[in-house]
Amino acid sequence: MNHSGAVIQLERLGKTYVVPEREAGLKAAVGSFFKRRNRQVKAVDEISFSVSAGEVVGFLGPNGAGKTTTLKMLSGLLYPSSGSASVLGFTPSRRDRDFLSQITLVMGQRQQLVWDIPALDSFELNRAVYRIPVEEFRRTRDEMVELLEMKDLVGKPVRNLSLGERMKAEIIGALLHRPKVLFLDEPTIGLDVTMQRRIRAFIAEYNQRHNATVLLTSHYMADVEALCKRVIVIHHGRLLFDGDLSRLVERFSPQKKIVVVLADTSVDLSAYGDVIHKEDDRITLRVTKADVPRVTVRLLSDLPVVDLVVEDPPVEDVIELVFSQTAEEMLP
Amino acid sequence: MRYMLDYYLTQMKTAIVVQFQYRVANYFYMIGMIAEPVIYLVVWSTVAESQGGSVGGYTAGDFAAYYIVWTLVRNMNIALTPYAWEFWIQRGQLSMELLRPVHPFHGQLAYFSGWKVVAIVMWLPIAAVLSIIFKPTLQPTLWEIAAFGVALWGGFLVRFVMLWLLGMITFWTTRVGAFFELYFTVELLFSGRLVPLSLMPVWAQHVADFLPFQWAFGFPIELLLGKLTPQQALYGLGMQAFWVLLGGLASALTWRFALRRFSAVGA
């Protein structure tokens, strides 16, 4: 670990891909045979942050923002083009045995388990890979199988499992060696709500029990809200925000919602703010943050209010707002 | 060492379980592979008979033995081809292996070794049927059988290491098929796969001496057929060790640069 006590530390970490480029058509194809043109694409643009032991951090960004590239650099799969990274005191790109034995990377769309044989056989292989003592292996495996309710399924060939069952088996396989750092890339992608919830609960349990550090990417804000107090947002490879999830809403959402229930449903509220939803006696208004106190007082004094609630907009909406703006616009 | 042994045995066991799942496919694959040596066998047996019973010291019975043992050696020679490397990288499977604290070389070597156990077991009935049909002349001594056992696995190692080295070109270009076709043609000519090397022109035999191919293919077969003296057998085993070490060293050096090139495509 480094001097600041961070488990994960990035210093101006960057990754640039060289991408061959040509226009469509036969002429361009023939031309590129003689003269190739390449373009440099900055997938990750000098980002810096650190994560302490036991933290669960949401790593957010739209598709192509550089999240997966960052996770690949942190797990030793990719060499950075610039800057430096340190995980558990190791330089990931050196791929030390001790480093790889203490981390895991779970990718929602990739699998580590052998497709044709029962998950139990793959777990056994992981025991040998990570040199887990037999007794400890059995204890951990049985505990996780129990927690994720997989007892009747781990004996079936992986190809016969449903997507959700397979993901649960993948997670067990990835955590058998009790890694200290978890890189989770869309671990709940494509799963139904119940399965998502179960996996979330399992990750939370693992984090608490082992004080594991988790860096999680997900397009499901429910994952982030349930697991992460802190979020890091990147866009076009650049870091836009690093802080508490609640602060993200405060900072990037200039508006709030006022949900008001009235005794008289015929009243027109358009003079108080934008009416964004109306259902029976329940009306939702959108107003700027600065106007909230004034509008609230006016509503309470002018109208027969039965109930009134002031809400932040859903995190999904805030994130969408962040992503819809360019990196330059969002930078402080 | 104990951990590596445990890893190898577990990975081999995994391969055996997987390959037995596909026993029918494996059988059809092996049967399909028989067509090639049977054609060579029929041609050379006919040539031998037309030339008074033998060609270059090989009788029809010798050719039968050569090409029946050929089927086993051919199966033992199957390793991770560059085509599989392409697939391996594009499907993101290499990324998954790179996350593990074991070099993917060991993973694949152990897996293919397990597969070989299945191949040998499945080959036995095929060899029995071929022997009934073609009546091979095969009377190896004990030392030849023992040395063949070592040379068979040595040949596998030679080819495995060479293909590993070749497959790493995938890190620099995503299409390595063309390189492999060229390699495969040279290998076919100078390995003893097409014809026993002793029947090739002298210049071709000299060229073959500088290449690794015969040590992976023709050498184990000739050893079991009793065509080699103990000294020649020892020399052959030594050459296998030499090519494995050379290939292994070159692979280790190339791997360092290859990983820097790796862009984790598909994962």
Task: Summarize it.
With 332 residues, chain A is α/β, with parallel strands linked by helices. Chain A has twelve helices and 13 strands. In chain A, helix 9 (245-252) packs across helix 11 (315-324).
Give a structural overview.
The complex is a heterodimer of chains A (332) and B (267). In chain A, 35% of the residues lie in helices and 30% in strands. Chain A is an alpha/beta fold and 332 residues long. Chain A folds into 2 domains: 6-249, P-loop containing nucleotide triphosphate hydrolases (Rossmann fold), CATH 3.40.50.300; 254-311, Alpha-Beta Plaits. In chain A, the strands form 3 sheets. In chain A, strands 5-6-7-3-8-9 form a 6-stranded mixed β-sheet, with helices on both faces. In chain A, strand 6 (181-185), helix 7 (193-210) and strand 7 form a beta-alpha-beta unit. In chain A, helix 4 (119-129) runs parallel beside helix 6 (163-175) and helix 9 (245-252) crosses helix 11. The longest helix of chain A has 18 residues, at 193-210. The two termini of chain A are 31 Å apart. Chain B is mainly alpha-helical and 267 residues long. Chain B has one domain (2-261). Chain B is 76% helix and 1% strand. Chain B has 12 helices and 2 strands. Chain B has helices at 2-21, 23-50, 60-76, 82-90, 93-98, 104-134, 142-167, 177-190, 202-209, 213-216, 218-224, 230-261, and strands spanning 54-55, 58-59. Chain B has a two-stranded antiparallel sheet with strand order 1-2. In chain B, strand 1 (54-55) and strand 2 form a beta hairpin. In chain B, helix 2 (23-50) packs across helix 6 (104-134) and helix 4 (82-90) packs across helix 7 (142-167). Chain B is globular. The model of chain B has no long low-confidence stretch (mean pLDDT 90). Chain A binds chain B through residues 17, 72, 75-79, 95, 97-98, 100-101, 103-105, 107, 110-112, 114, 116-117, 121-122, 124-125, 127-131, 157, and chain B through 3, 6-7, 9-11, 14, 17-18, 21-22, 92, 95-96, 98-102, 259-260, 262-264, 267.
